[in-house]
Write a structure and sequence with these properties.
Blueprint lengths: L5 H4 L4 E3 L3 E3 L6 E2 L2 E2 L10 H4 L10 E3 L3 H14 L3 E6 L4 H16 L4 E6 L4 H6 L7 E6 L2 E7 L3 H7 L1 H7 L1
Parallel strand pairs: 5-7, 6-7
Antiparallel strand pairs: 1-2, 3-4, 6-8, 8-9
């Protein structure tokens, strides 16, 4: 990787999926394609944030396994159902589902809402066999009791009915 004043003055770098940031003249051909110099794309709001935006609700972002265990312990002691959303910042349907998940967390305050980034906690992705994002898992007493794969808002709203009735 080249480090010179050319970065500040000269050629623009490009982000290439699977390669990270490169200087176009360093890899002029990949699979026979000629790379042209261009300005990097403007960063999106999601690129600037570490996590999806749940600020409109009561969703706890789980950053590590210690916080995960602590959240499960507290919910189990209180007899609450935990709703876990497995998502990623790069996932379009996850971004669309984030405000809905936040809204549901306000509507169903008797449930515990948490979000896990699949890139940050691969151990939990493996444990719960997450194969697509978003995936919503309902847990009670530290055990999975239900699962919804995909970001269909209507299905997500319907999924809450049995758990909220049981809580009342």
């Amino acid at each position: 990787m080249r480090h010179s004043s050319a970065f500040a003055e000269g050629p623009s770098i490009s982000r290439v999926q699977g390669f990270g940031y490169i200087y176009p003249d360093e890899l002029p051909r990949i699979d026979g394609l000629l790379w042209k110099r261009k300005l990097p794309p403007a960063p999106s709001a999601v690129d600037d944030e570490e996590h999806l935006d749940y600020s409109a609700g009561k969703v706890t972002i789980i950053p590590d396994l210690r916080r995960w265990e602590q959240t499960l312990d507290e919910a189990s002691e209180q007899g609450k159902t935990v709703v876990v959303k497995f998502s990623a910042t790069w996932c379009g349907p996850c971004r669309i589902a984030a405000p809905v998940f936040a809204e549901l967390s306000l509507k169903h305050s008797d449930l515990v809402f948490v979000s896990i980034d699949v890139d940050e906690l691969p151990e939990l992705v493996t444990k719960f066999d997450i194969r697509a994002t978003p995936t919503f898992i309902f847990m009670r007493d530290k055990k999975e009791i239900d699962k919804l794969v995909g970001g269909n808002q209507e299905d997500l709203h319907k999924k809450f009915d049995p758990y909220c009735q049981r809580q009342e």
